[in-house]
Amino acid sequence: xxxxxxxxxxxxxxAEDAEMLNFVISKARETAKLYGYREVITPVIEPYELLSAxxxxxIRSRMFTFKDLGNRTVALRPEFTASxxxxxxxxxxxxxxxxxxxxxxxxxxxxxxQRGRYREFYQSDFEIIGTSNPEADAEIILLTDxxxxxxxxxxxxxKLGHVGVIRGILSQExxxxxAQNAILQRMDKKEFDEAFKxxxxxxxxxxxxxxxxxxxxxxxxxxxxxxxxxxxxSKAASSAEDLKKILKLVTEGECPVATVEPAFARGLEYYTGxxxxxxxxxxxxxxxxxxxxxxxxxxxxxxxxPATGVAHGLDRIALAMQMQKTAPSTKPEKRVVVVPVKEExxxxxxxxxQKLREAGIPTEFEVMGRKMAKALEDADRxxxxxxxxxxxxxxxxxxxxxxxLAKREQILVEIAKLAEKVQS
Length: 424
Ligand code: AMP
What we know:
By secondary structure, the chain is of the alpha+beta class. It is built from 17 helices and 16 strands. It has 2 domains: 309 residues, 2-Layer Sandwich (BirA Bifunctional Protein, domain 2), CATH 3.30.930.10; 88 residues, Rossmann fold, CATH 3.40.50. It is elongated, with a radius of gyration of 28 Å.
């Protein structure tokens, strides 16, 4: 048999990477708690139809889709929002609004594997459902800001936009929604010439091209330029006004907004309003992104329900932490290994190990049956703090030897006081 490798784009996360990812997850959960979001757990496999309905061509074409044995066309989720929108039309339909949810887990996309881009990756996804007010959009951005700070990242900054501006211009020029999606999809990839080829009206083209020139170093000035640029387009103008309100709220919340991008678009098709991404200078791929999707729940058969949310790329956040050398701030715990001096004392040694674990002390047991010298050498190599040596003579006094492996010193400790002694 050949040795097996992981499938291309899939990764094993070894202990250190798994610890790092779990640290980021713990910070996402902490953030959810602080902002009043409750975690729900949805399936990895969902109906293809649900996941593909409004995700957009880009994600649709990258989904892991297959038939299950019952001949259902299903797919591995490429994101969480569709699952949460499904819940909002079913089990959570009658929940008081706003409904705030957190989802954490793996998602799947057939992307080209490279640094920070995998086919199986992890997200924390926050959704707030039931209001179209700018406070909700601001909250989503502010909780993302909080997560970035909580994991210790520095110099991160937000990029903001509003798909309602471009959609507003296009819809007033009678460009239908399907064509709007195709145009936004190309704009997301910065293929502006390709995008504009799809626009027929000269007037509309002029307005769209003009919108690319509006960016200023000052974010509020950019929004004002957008506002005057789209004055004749009522929907686009109210979108620009909405963007201004959100920008004002997040700035008041002391969140670092680096740019407002008039021609910013995102791959997902369901966005209807504010969109954003967050970056650090060391990486040119986003650590997270989200936006408003006011039509999705309706498309899934629910009452018209406005909603907004964000997905954080947890692998990329961990990568960013490595690049900025921000270690997880957990305090190291003392580790011990329990070693019986001879075979007959195994039972007694095991009982002592159990007691230490009950007291919350990470305790390994010498399971390899090694002689004392070898067992201590191994414990030292693996950076265990103390070896608890269980010998007959000491046991008679109700005690064990505790050896500090780094200092190569040992003292006699009463079993009754062992846990307390190790912890101090
Ligand atoms: P999206 O909603 O597509 O913008 O995805 C949200 C976040 O997930 C992105 O900002 C990335 O941080 C992360 N992400 C997206 N695709 C991948 C991938 N292939 N590998 C790792 N992280 C990803």
